[in-house]
Write a structure and sequence with these properties.
mainly beta, 9-stranded antiparallel β-sheet
Length: 733
């Protein structure tokens, strides 16, 4: 399902959008409305009971950070079908402490610091019906005995505790201990530390009462205060010390934590999830101007362009989440005023900015895909560890019947060019269906399986895709116009009379190399000193001329020099176009061992092929790459070349990730030769790759191995699986 979104008075330069789950759309666009380039990613969430919001927490502790991808992966491992995620709260780099409120599943993980903090840092929340809101919310708690009561000012926050009371659960820190920040020496002298036992909790459910027994009372300030697994720790400083000591004399105590909406001081214990932002953008339908933005924040930070993460809610409860990149020539970030304008343009009646800068990250489960991947470019060049995240998940489970087929936009084909089409599938709720488990039928002229061969005439190729009850047409432009061409590698020709040479040429179309059909080639010579038959040049008489090749609107000329007769002692074999299939990978045993990488396997598979029933599937990741380069070897003792060969060819199915492909050969005299097929597999689908072989090597020549080798050391240890398929391994002579 591909959607195009256009605004009446605001149109970005490019727009592409897709429905990634029922009620959830993802849009990527390049905007120039501010006078500078801005790369924007946007998620739009319509009200739908099938979707729900969650907050993630770094390593499930208050004073901890963790990347958004790691938080998402843990949530998915727990059974949540995460569709999208962004970074959320600002945090203090030294401690990982969030600046504001976080609630998970109706339980308070950490409160704001003080009332002013709750007003300064608004929160995105979902209520008991799962509906989103943006507002200012503060936590207030009570600690009671039979005769006394006192206020708990903060939860799991080890700062701003002068003359205040704080309560701590073992979710405060991974070490299950407390250390305090910013306390004055005077406050340290007036401290009460009380350990309560009776409940094993990580976070307080809003409005719920908990009964405790006093376990230990201490009036000496210290560091590394332990938090029991079956209890909590209450601390009081300054003028709060004596009231706490008086209260705990009764031994049996009760606590309750409530959430207060600051705008009307109403109790909001129905809130299910909450994550705080950095500042308001739109409040009560009004976009903040520079003075209002700067009231609680540094004015310079409001006008500088930075990567940003924004979230806003419209009057009909639609939520818009937006990120903008910064630090690249294609994107310069937003000022906060531009962020306000973006949210107003989307119709937000309330909006805030989450943490930005290097923390800005958006993850999306693309239409028809299962993995959730980062779609923006983080300013750090990688995912930054952050304190928490906001995730959108769905309750919809994939059905078995396909409702929609998603075909990536197809660049135009060159005449005679072959392309493997890949299709993504979803059900009626836009949940992904594994395309490899479905029989997809493609019909049309020049179709073989999912491969399309363009006709030799320009125009349009049209086909039909069908699977289950879903159908869609496919139209691809076919052109005979090239954007570039190379001829004989740009090298002049120097031949002797009677000598022949194979004429080589490559066409280029929009950055990719294409094969030029013979019918498109037109050769010319100023002086007829050679003949050309089927791309073979034969020198006829001595002389000099310019040899010209024209194709696809391109013309390349190279000097041709022919000298006297070729010595009889060095006959030049005429090239042929004969081939022998060394392996069609229909069956057999293949060894895959390497001294460098252990995390790869080879199997005969029927999933992809260019001929026959099967191909050889190589599945790999780099978790088992331990030393030197990432070389992965495939061997078969039956790969023997018995004729003087000119090249090897291999049909290779790529996934845009596989590295350098090479082969190691050993000739009859024991000399080892290494040949290259391709530096990197940067395409999707099947493509024939070739490696040059010298016919002078004494036969028989044994192909000792085909091997992929990764030289990018940054990939060492990565666990994301990839795969390629090999078919029709041929020797040409």
């Amino acid at each position: 399902m591909i959607l195009i979104l256009l605004g009446a008075s605001y149109t970005p330069l490019t727009v592409g959008a897709e429905t990634i789950s029922k009620g959830i759309d993802y849009t990527s666009k390049q905007d120039h409305s501010s006078g500078v380039p801005q790369t924007i990613q946007q998620i739009t969430v319509q009200p739908d009971p099938g979707n729900y919001w969650m907050t993630g927490k770094g390593r499930d502790h208050v004073l901890a950070t963790e990347s958004v991808p790691s938080q998402v992966n843990r949530s998915m491992a727990a059974g949540n079908r995460v569709v999208a995620a962004v970074n959320a709260d600002m945090y203090k780099v030294a401690s990982g402490l969030p600046i504001g409120l976080q609630i998970q599943q109706n339980a308070v993980l950490v409160s704001h610091s003080v009332k002013e903090s709750a007003l300064k840092f608004p929160s995105f929340v979902t209520n008991g019906q799962g509906k989103p809101e943006i507002g200012s919310y503060g936590v207030i708690g009570t600690l009671k005995s039979a005769a006394r009561s006192m206020t708990i000012h903060s939860v799991n926050r080890n700062e701003n505790l002068d003359n205040r009371v704080g309560i701590f659960t073992n979710a405060h820190h991974v070490s299950k201990t407390i250390n305090f920040s910013g306390l004055s020496d005077a406050m340290k002298k007036e401290a009460a530390i009380v350990t309560l036992k009776g409940n094993s909790i990580k976070a307080f459910k809003l409005g719920q009462s908990y009964d405790w027994t006093v376990h230990q009372v201490d009036t000496t300030f210290r560091s590394n205060i332990p938090i029991p697994t079956d209890g909590v720790v209450v601390v009081a400083f300054g003028k709060q010390k004596k009231p706490l000591l008086d209260l705990v004399k009764e031994n049996k105590l009760t606590t309750q934590i409530n959430l207060i909406q600051m705008s009307n001081l109403q109790v909001r214990n129905d809130i299910q999830e909450a994550a705080s932002g950095y500042n308001w953008l739109v409040k009560d339908g009004i976009g903040l101007d520079l003075n209002a933005l700067s009231e609680n924040h540094d004015r310079f930070l409001m006008i500088v362009r930075k990567a940003r993460t924004l979230i806003g809610i419209t009057a009909n409860q639609t939520v818009h989440i937006m990120t903008v990149d910064q630090g690249r020539t294609t994107s310069k970030g937003f000022t906060m005023l531009e962020a306000v304008a973006q949210m107003k343009r989307l119709g937000a009646v309330s909006a805030l900015a989450f943490d930005g800068g290097g923390s800005t990250e958006m993850m999306v489960r693309r239409a028809g895909e299962s993995p959730v991947r980062t779609v923006n470019v983080p300013a750090d060049g990688r995912s930054r560890a952050v304190t928490n995240s906001l995730m959108i998940a769905t309750r919809y489970v994939p059905e078995t019947s396909v409702a929609y087929m998603i075909l990536p936009e197809q660049p135009e084909l060159y005449v005679g060019e072959t392309r493997q089409l890949t299709v993504k599938l979803t059900d009626r709720n836009s949940q992904p269906i594994n395309a490899s488990q479905k029989k997809i039928k493609l019909t049309g002229l020049g179709v073989s399986g999912m491969q399309v061969k363009a006709p030799l005439q320009p125009g349009k190729w049209t086909g039909q895709l069908s699977v289950d009850q879903a159908k869609r047409s496919v139209t691809i432009n076919v052109t005979n116009r090239l954007s570039g061409m190379t001829f004989n590698g740009g090298k002049p020709f120097a031949l002797k009379v009677g000598q022949t040479v194979k004429l080589t040429s490559d066409g280029w179309l929009n950055g990719r190399k294409v094969i030029i059909p013979s019918s498109e080639k037109k050769y010319g010579m100023q002086q007829p000193i050679a003949s050309i038959t089927k791309d073979v040049l034969t020198a006829k008489k001595a002389g000099k001329t310019m040899l010209t090749l024209s194709a696809g609107g391109q013309t390349v000329s190279l000097p041709l020099t022919v000298t006297g007769s070729q010595p009889a002692s060095k006959p030049v074999p005429k090239p042929s176009n004969k081939s022998i299939v060394l392996d069609s990978f229909e069956s057999g045993t293949y060894t895959s061992t390497s001294p460098y990488v252990s995390s790869y396997t080879t199997t005969v598979s029927t999933e992809q092929k260019t001929a026959g029933r099967s191909s050889l599937k190589l599945t790999y990741d780099y978790s088992g790459w331990t030393k030197q380069n990432g070389a992965m070897y495939i061997t078969n003792p039956k790969w023997n070349i018995t004729v003087p060969a000119t090249k090897l060819s291999l049909d290779l199915y790529g996934d845009r990730k596989a590295p350098w492909l090479r082969a190691q050969l050993k000739d009859a005299k024991g000399k080892v030769h290494t040949v290259d097929f391709v530096k990197r597999v940067d395409w999707t689908g099947f493509k024939t790759v070739e490696a040059k072989v010298d016919p002078a090597w004494p036969v028989p020549v044994q192909v000792q191995s085909l091997y992929f080798v990764e030289t990018d050391m940054k990939k060492k240890g990565q666990v994301q699986k990839s795969k390629v398929y090999l078919d029709q391994f041929k020797v040409w002579y």
